[in-house]
Design a protein that fits this description.
The complex is a heterotrimer of chains A (39), B (229) and C (228). Chain A is mainly α and 39 residues long. Chain A has one helix at 5-38. Chain A has one domain. Chain A has one helix and no strands. The radius of gyration of chain A is 17 Å and the shape is rod-shaped. By secondary structure, chain B is mainly α. The radius of gyration of chain B is 18 Å and the shape is globular. The two termini of chain B are 22 Å apart. Chain C is built from six helices and no strands. In chain C, helix 4 runs antiparallel to helix 5 (138-170). The chains are: A mainly alpha (39), B mainly alpha (229), C mainly alpha (228). Chain B binds chain C through residues 152, 155-156, 159-160, 162-164, 166, 169, 172-173, 175-177, 179-181, 183-184, 187, 190-191, 203-204, 207, 210-211, 214-215, 218-219, 222, 225-226, 229, and chain C through 68, 116, 120, 123-124, 126-127, 130-131, 134-135, 139-140, 143-144, 147-148, 150-152, 154-155, 158-159, 162-163, 165-167, 169-170.
Chain lengths: 39, 229, 228
């Protein structure tokens, strides 16, 4: 299946955005877990 | 006080509202002036001749309801805020049961809206040369539309009175809830204007009546929670 | 013990899953017929986002009703968490829908009933938060916003189900797209990616929602302890 070059870029940008958000959310999760343990 | 029936309490609340309103005429002025000003602006700028024939059904129905809705927003929001402002809210809580307060104020808003429609709609039709084929259908759409609009406005007015009471908040909260009604009611008006048969407005009427019913029932259940807290 | 293991693993599994879904949406799934170019791929993201926005609405409703019954501050926190996520996802759904409309039909907005209903959902969430901003007292804030949420919920079906029916009975040909939901035949690959994306976005909602609720629970118990 021929993949247009533009698609590769869109997929790459989407993946990067997703990974960025994901790492941020993992950090949040860690912080909440630390708070819960302090209880 | 407790021996009175729900009906008599509703009527009492309604009577109080009407009397107070006739004395100060705040809401009447707000609604009436707003509606007349917008109507005049629209009629002057657009009038009967400046809309293309093909666009007339859509635009005339939509413009009418824009005028009616925004006039309603300007006047219906104060029905509970004025109690808080004049510190009569606590007395009202003691004097009547919550459902009576809600129904009484709802009926008041309904009367206000119907008075508005009775004056503005004929004026609009005259000034904009809006020829309506199905007058009976239009009247039904207006009646049921007022029932539904008043319901949503009254319960939201109760909510904002317990929040900040600002008219902006009233507009923000009412808008999403009232958009479906607006769409259906404009469709109904268009149908009534286009054909004299009642069957044409039936789909819209069904939508409006069920929306009104659902909103009223939900509001009667929600009101005590909002009122007493 | 297993609960904690699950809690730690779930986000990572979700992360890998979503990357796979994104790549699959672009490279594995074919494009649908009747769509312009590659634009059908957006459906893998747009529909799950709309679905999550509605799911969040339902979660908010349940939490709101529970709050009205029991006045438990945790229920209010649940309702707020759901609403916040609902707002985010309805913004995403509206934006992706609008982009799709631009590619397919040339304009960003078409007043199609489906488009309008997701935008109205957005307005409901925004109004919900506007209301919350204006009330200082915690219990009153919870009560009023819960009441508004219930009211909004009973009104929504009319826009989604009743209005399109009225449109059709009067003007069946005015609207360009058949309720914005072009009935495309999803062949197996597309269906796989679509279901995968749906699962992924739902998982994302569940994860973010539970994190927010856990945080609220910690805050509430801390506040309670300070009271004593």
């Amino acid at each position: 299946m021929p993949i247009p070059e533009s698609l590769i870029w869109v997929a790459a940008v989407t993946t990067v955005i997703w990974l960025g958000l994901f790492v941020y959310c993992i950090a949040l999760d860690r912080r909440v877990r630390r708070l819960e343990e302090d209880q | 006080m407790r021996g009175s029936s729900l009906l008599s309490e509703c009527v009492a609340v309604l009577g109080k509202e009407v009397t107070a309103e006739l004395r100060s005429r705040v809401a009447l002025n707000a609604i009436g002036l707003f509606a007349l000003t917008t109507l005049v602006a629209v009629a002057y700028q657009i009038g009967p001749y400046r809309i293309a024939e093909a666009d007339r059904p859509h635009l005339l129905a939509a413009l009418l309801w824009i005028i009616l809705f925004f006039a309603a927003t300007s006047g219906l929001s104060r029905v509970f805020v004025k109690e808080e402002d004049s510190h009569t809210a606590k007395t009202l809580r003691l004097a009547a049961r919550p459902s009576a307060v809600f129904i009484g104020k709802y009926l008041f808003n309904l009367v206000l809206l119907l008075a508005l429609y009775a004056i503005i709609v004929p004026l609009y039709c005259a000034l904009m040369a809006y020829s309506v084929e199905g007058v009976a259908g239009l009247v039904l759409v207006l009646l049921t539309g007022a029932v539904a609009l008043s319901a949503t406005s009254t319960i939201v007015a109760a909510i904002i009175a317990r929040a900040s009471g600002s008219a902006t908040l009233f507009a923000i909260l009412t808008m999403p809830l009232v958009l479906p009604l607006l769409v259906i009611v404009i469709q109904g008006t268009r149908a009534a204007a286009a054909s004299a048969e009642l069957a044409a407005v039936l789909p819209a009427l069904r939508g409006i009546v069920s929306l009104a019913g659902v909103t009223l029932i939900t509001s009667v259940y929600l009101f005590p929670v909002v009122w007493h807290d | 013990m297993t609960r904690n293991v699950l809690r730690v693993c779930f986000p990572w599994v979700l992360g890998v899953w979503m990357v796979a879904v994104i790549l699959a949406a672009f490279f594995y799934a074919p494009t649908a017929q009747g769509f312009k170019g590659e634009s059908s791929r957006i459906v893998f993201f747009h529909v799950p986002q709309a679905w999550v926005a509605v799911l969040a609405f339902c979660v908010n409703l349940v939490a709101s009703i529970r709050y009205l019954r029991g006045r438990d501050p945790l229920d209010d926190a649940r309702a707020t968490a759901a609403a916040r996520l609902g707002l985010v996802f309805s913004v995403l759904a509206t934006v992706t829908g609008s982009l799709f409309a631009r590619v397919m039909w040339g304009s960003f907005w078409n007043w199609d009933p489906r488009e309008v209903s997701i935008a109205i959902l957005l307005l409901v969430y925004a109004a919900y938060f506007a209301l919350r901003e204006m009330v200082a007292d915690e219990e009153r804030r919870g009560t009023l916003s819960a009441a508004y949420a219930v009211l909004a919920f009973v009104t929504m079906p009319f826009l989604i189900f009743v209005v399109p029916r009225i449109y059709w009975s009067l003007h069946p040909d005015t609207i360009i797209s058949a309720s914005g939901q072009l009935k495309f035949e999803m062949e197996s690959r597309m269906r796989q990616v679509f279901v995968g994306s749906l699962a992924g976005f739902t998982g994302l909602f569940v994860w973010l929602y539970t994190v927010e609720v856990r945080l609220a629970r910690v805050r509430i118990s801390r506040a309670r302890r300070e009271e004593v």
